[in-house]
Design a protein that fits this description.
The protein is an alpha/beta fold. 43% of the residues lie in helices and 14% in strands.
């Protein structure tokens, strides 16, 4: 029997919610309107997680989920199980068969797993956003290739936001040319003076 896949620690990670750049928050909302994904790129302490947790808190009316990644998620079954369990917080029926495949003693071929998952994602009745925090820890080439395939074949109601320290090895440029991917980095992550003042008032309250 295959060992159970433990994914609970990926979910419900919380950060201090503050007031971030309105331009960056608007950019994340554009993902839902125009594209399949967004990348939020910045060094440690640049405000990636604060930006996303602020959006997450303010987007209560949007179907959304959060996955906090770590080095152990370079094991493919663990990575995909974490992503699916996050999706199931929004749509419980999504990925049930795919999870069974991942828990099998004989892991499925990536194409079979992705076909099953994409079939379920295509049934989503509302726009759904999954945030993958710390995506830069993923170095497994097989995961990168499979996730790239997923992004390029994404049904219109599914969206991913990747928080990462570096540009991920994904077809971001190609998706951007198609208008399917937005990049948020640099100046867009910075506070204005008014926003910084509001943030520290909130933290010190």
């Amino acid at each position: 029997m295959a060992e159970p896949i433990i994914v609970a620690q990926h979910l419900f990670h919380t950060y201090q919610v503050g007031t971030m750049s309105k331009e960056a928050l608007i950019d994340i909302n554009l993902v839902i309107e125009r594209g399949s994904c967004a990348t939020v790129i910045g060094v440690t302490g640049s405000g990636k997680s604060t930006l996303l947790s602020t959006w997450y808190a303010e987007a209560a009316s949007i179907s959304r989920a959060w996955v906090s990644l770590d080095e152990a998620d370079n094991e493919p079954s663990r990575f995909w199980a974490a992503l699916i369990v996050a999706l199931q917080r929004c749509a419980p029926a999504v990925g049930q068969n795919t999870l069974k495949m991942l828990r099998s003693p004989h892991p499925p071929a990536p194409k079979a797993m992705l076909a099953s998952l994409l079939s379920d994602i295509s049934t989503l009745s509302e726009h759904t956003v999954v945030i993958l925090d710390d995506y830069h820890v993923i170095s497994n080439e097989g995961i990168q290739q499979a996730f790239a395939f997923l992004l390029e074949h994404m049904p219109s109601r599914m969206h991913f936001v990747l928080a990462t320290r570096t540009l991920p090895p994904l077809p971001v440029a190609r998706l951007r040319v198609r208008g399917q991917c937005l990049e948020i980095q640099g100046q867009a992550l910075l506070f204005t003076l008014e926003e910084a003042t509001a943030f520290f008032r909130h933290v010190m309250a």
